[in-house]
Design goal:
single chain, alpha/beta, Purple Acid Phosphatase, chain A, domain 2, 6-stranded mixed beta sheet, 15% strand, elongated
């Protein structure tokens, strides 16, 4: 953003929603950390200078009053056209935001899908996004040179809306978390969407008169220079998470679950060759990657870097024994407490065991067929459900 502004451009910085939280409702054990994270995101967006932020379904996890606190001066410019109060029908947030950029009048409105359950948000209701879009176009047509919709409806609904409600110039979409390298054009409407979790920043350079445009995506990787102020916010957040979970009392573990997981060291007693192989894989260093990043107490991360997290007898923060750090044998083969030579262990490794963590969001380049050969233990009769055509690829790994 700083480079764009230095180049003389005046960018409109927009977000389609679902910024603060990744699930709704939020489990009780996650709530304190999620509040810390939402505070970080709010402060970062204020620093960046967000122009309009749509309210998405997940943003309502703590209720509208929580968002009210975030919009206090100097706050966040929330926009939503179809969230209204049950009594009176007044919009809860700004129905649209008007901007003028180099003489071009821009109107930005936002939509959220109809939801079956609004949780604790008893005082609000949602209007039909399609009917609301028609109403907004009627209000804004003639007042703005460019009409932009920030949509939390999803890709399919965005395309349907573009066909059924003419007059929208741009739809900046979200929810389905699709990476659109090339915008979808339906009629006179361009539909844009970037990847989830801030992994890509989308930029559209648009001539509002001719509608000619150039769209680009920038991966937010190590090549992007860090902003010192925002980097400091992130570090303080990580410190706060460590402090939070270091001081939190440990939950009591019921006795029947204590020996569900036994740990790799116990597996190694009967399977020394497999243990030696595992120690050379990236799975054996999975937890250490979190320690380096100071994310080893981040509840959003540890599940994919430990064994059995969230399962009775599995990894817990600050547990001493068994040592279930890293992605160990039991992450693939299931709890070994009842195995011990009796054969009660998972021998058929379904791809879903891997793709629970290596999904499109976290690891978009992951390929089960080529990857599993890198971590499959040698000399064990383990079935992996692949076709005859796929099995020759198993041992090639990434080669």
């Amino acid at each position: 953003m700083e480079e764009v502004k230095k180049g003389g451009s005046i960018p409109l910085i927009l977000d389609s929603g679902n910024l603060f939280f990744n699930q709704n409702p939020i489990p009780d054990e996650m709530k304190a950390q999620m509040r810390l994270k939402a505070d970080l995101l709010a402060d970062a967006y204020k620093k960046i200078g967000i122009d309009a932020l749509n309210v998405g379904e997940l943003d309502l996890a703590f209720g509208v009053n929580y968002l009210f606190d975030k919009r206090k001066n100097p706050g966040l410019p929330f926009v939503s056209s179809n969230i209204v109060y049950r009594v009176g029908g007044k919009e809860v947030f700004q129905p649209y935001i008007a901007k003028e950029v180099k003489g071009v009048k821009v109107a930005i409105f936002g939509l959220i899908p109809l939801l079956p359950n609004l949780g604790n948000n008893k005082d609000i209701k949602l209007l039909s996004p399609f009917d609301t879009a028609r109403t907004m176009i009627g209000k804004l047509k003639g007042k703005a040179d460019l009409i932009i919709l920030l949509s939390n409806l999803g890709q399919q609904e965005d395309e349907k809306l573009a066909r059924e409600v003419p007059g929208i110039d741009l739809i900046v979409g979200g929810r389905t978390r699709v990476l659109l390298q090339t915008p979808v054009k339906i009629g006179n409407t361009l539909i844009l969407q970037a990847q989830a979790q801030g992994k890509q920043i989308g930029r559209l350079d648009l001539n509002p008169t001719t509608k000619a445009f150039v769209n680009s995506m920038t991966p937010m990787d190590e090549k992007v220079a860090k902003n010192e102020e925002i980097d400091g916010m992130v570090k303080r957040y990580k410190d706060a998470v460590v402090t939070l979970h270091s001081e939190r009392p440990q939950p009591k573990v019921q006795e029947p679950f204590l020996k569900t997981y036994i740990g790799e060291a116990e597996c190694a007693r009967c399977h020394p060759a497999q243990s030696a192989f595992w120690k050379e894989t990236s799975h054996a260093r999975a937890y250490e990657t979190l320690v380096v990043k100071k994310s080893h107490m981040d509840l959003e991360c540890i599940g994919c870097h430990t064994t059995g997290y969230g399962v009775p007898g599995g990894f817990r923060l600050r547990m001493e024994a068994p040592d279930l750090r890293n992605v160990q044998c039991e992450a693939c083969h299931g709890p070994g407490g009842r195995h011990m030579g009796k054969g009660d262990i998972r021998r058929i490794i379904d791809p879903s065991v891997c793709t629970g963590c290596h999904n499109k969001e976290r690891d978009p380049k992951f390929n089960f067929i080529s990857s599993v050969g890198k971590v499959r233990c040698p000399n064990l009769k383990i079935d992996i459900p692949l076709s005859k055509a796929q099995k020759p690829l198993l041992d090639k790994g990434f080669q």
